[in-house]
Amino acid sequence: MTLAARLLLAFGLVAIFAAALVGLSLRDASRQIIEGDFEDRIEAAAVGVRRELAQEARALEGLLGPLCAHDTFVDKAHLLLEKARGDEAAIEPGARISMRHFVPDQARALGLDDLVLVTDKGLILAASDVSRTGTKAPELAKLLRSPAGGAPRLRPDPEGGEASLEVHCARSGGGVEVGLVGARRVGKILERIGASHGVELRIEGADRVKTTGDAVVRPIEVAEVPGLRVVAIAARERLHDALAKLDRAMLFAGSVALGLGLAIAFVLARSLSRPIVELARETREVVAGAPRTVKGRGGRELHDLADAWNRTIAELVAMRKRLAATERIAARREVARQIAHEIKNPLAPIRAAVETLRRLRAREDPAFDEYFEEATTTVLEEVHRIANIVSEFTRFARLPPPNPEPIDLVSVAKGVVTLHASAGEGVEKTGTRRVELSSEPIPQVMADRDQMVQVLTNLIQNGLDAASAVRPDPRVLVTIGPLAENKVRVVVRDNGPGVPAEMVPRLFEAYATTKEKGTGLGLAIVQRIVFEHGGEIAYREAKKGGAVFELHLPVSGPPLLDKPPAVETTVRGPDRSS
Fold it and tell me: What membrane topology does the annotation report for this chain (predicted)?
């Protein structure tokens, strides 16, 4: 018998025995008590709802008055409008932004669904619904001219939606007037109060109050809000639900049934836990040490699980061996290919120079001494070039892992930008080069400061070199800003010719370069640093020409991995925003 069948049989017997032993003996007595309590609760709920609605109305009466009378923000808004002589467009942008942030925050603090800061001309300066900011609402201007305080006003929704309780206050002087108009949706108030009393509350009306089935309806008068009439509805379905819950509860109420169920559960737990725990221990040993087969003990499912685990481990071991061998061969081939390709070019002139010297020497040519200086200079230059190639490759291969610390990435970028901008002053004769920084507020980033400097330096210098080759006014723009998912975005743009199409697929490969004297390791180093920081780097062509390199870095820093994650480098289409 399978484990699932054993569990189903055991717990089925427990449930049936408990229901038969305990449920029937208590059901009738409990039903009479619940039905009497239901009728008493309906009457008590109607009284409580009336009292709480009155308290809600009184609380709204004096909610906004202190803000208009004493709040410094309302004073400031009134003063700014007075200085602008009622012209909202003349208010400083910073003050308008402050008002737009204050009103939603104040609405949440006061528990209002809607709050607007409005002038006596009906112009909305700020609102909790930001889409209303800058619009005109003549009905609000009319409301400001009415006396503040007093009972809340019932405001129907103009589109036939949910009504609201509305209050207002005003501050006038200097020929201008501003005010706050706040509202709470009646539906939310009724829902909250009704939930506390276990009834459904609705606004009374022929088109609103519609009940179906067996229900008790109690009308409630709310004198504190003129025009507001509420009805409390208590469906008897709740009574039936309560009885149904009682029936279900009785199935588990018997002490004999509970004791029997616990005894069966204990026996089953012991019989099932031992083979599962043993299987888990064996699988942990397999993961931590040399692969070996595990044995399934217990039900048929555990035997099937152990067999599947053994087959999977065997396949993974074989696949890992094949993959490791393949990767070693591929790595050796790539290193050999790259080094051979880079060293081959300097060897050709060295060989030609040595062969020419040998021929001149063999025939005792008088030009030997004259050519000797030129040939040895060529050999030394090419040997120096080979040494540079080996040094660059060694530096790339020995690039240390990141040493992350909290850094201000904008400050780091500003230092690199300032260095490159000042380095170009007085150098260009036919034009000027510009290196600029545009940034938004971002949090501190966990990163290696020196490696971030190296990344920005390589990208900025590449952009200046590429642009200087084709125009007298090279320009590089560095943009830094926040991203979703706790990341930051760094974009480096230049106004150069961009990357040739044939070079794009090999852009981040070692030794891939379009420069005559470049090693082709700059972008490979940049990519490796970015990947080891858990980020991404991508290239795209700007719409107006030039190259765009975009980096995404996690704020939390490099992942805790032994090696950088396998992040794919993407090459995007033209940048339509440049």
Answer: Multi-pass membrane protein
- E-state strands within 376-431: 405-407
For residue 292, what pLDDT is reported? 64
Give the position of tokens 């400083």: 92
Nearest to 152 by CA among 66, 71, 59, 239: 59
- Mean local confidence (pLDDT), 261-281: 65
Entry field: residues in the chain: 578
CATH (residue range 1-253): 3.30.450.20
- Give the C-alpha separation, 9 to 24, whole Å: 23
Q: Does the pLDDT value for residue 1 go beyond 80? A: no
Q: For 165-210, what is each residue's pLDDT tens digit? A: 888 888 888 778 888 888 888 887 778 777 877 777 877 763 444 5
Strand 200-203, strand 176-185: pairing? unpaired
CATH fold of 405-571 reads: Heat Shock Protein 90 (3.30.565)
- Edge-first strand listing for the sheet containing 229-235: 200-203, 229-235, 215-221
Residue 142, exposed/middle/buried by CB under 10 A (0-12, 13-18, 19+)? exposed
Give the three-state DSSP class for 375: helix
Give the whole-angstrom CA distance, residue 487 versus residue 556.
8
Taking Cα atoms as reference points, which of 294, 316, 314, 315 lies closest to residue 305?
294
**DSSP 8-state class, residue 224:** T
Which secondary structure element, helix H or strand E, spans residue 159, and what is its range?
Answer: none
Q: pLDDT: is 503 or 513 the higher one?
A: 503
* Spatial separation of the C-alpha atoms in residues 474 and 470, rounded to whole Å: 8
Distance CA 277, CA 293 (A): 16
Say yes or no: domain 287-398 is CATH 1.10.287.
Answer: yes
- C-alpha to C-alpha distances, 456 to 174, 414, 417, nearest whole angstrom: 55, 10, 8
**DSSP letters of 316-348?**
HHHHHHHHHHHHHHHHHHHHHHHHHHHHHHHHH
Q: What radius of gyration do the chain's Cα atoms show?
A: 40
Return the SS3 of 66.
helix
CB 163 within 8 A of CB 156: yes
Highest-pLDDT range among 46-50, 248-252, 525-529, 546-550: 546-550
Q: In the predicted model, what is the mean pLDDT of the chain?
A: 75
Amino acid 564: pLDDT: 37
| Tokens representing residue 249 in the block | 């509860």
Closest CA to 455 of 523, 550, 546, 553: 523
Compute the distance between CA of residue 144 and CA of residue 138 in angstroms, rounded to an integer. 10
Domain boundaries, the chain: 1-253, 287-398, 405-571
Helix (H) or strand (E) holding 529: helix 522-532
Does 287-398 match 405-571 in CATH topology?
no
Would you say 288 and 281 are in contact if contact means Cβ atoms under 8 Å apart?
Answer: no
Angle at 486 between CA 485 and CA 487, to 5 degrees: 95
CA atoms within 13 A on the CB side of 188: 9
Q: What gap in Å lies between CA 199 and CA 207, rounded to an integer?
A: 20
Cβ within 8 Å of residue 13, ≥6 positions away: 264
Rounded Cα distance, 189 and 191, in Å: 5
- Residue 362: count other Cβ atoms within 10 Å of its Cβ: 9
Three-state secondary structure call for residue 512: coil
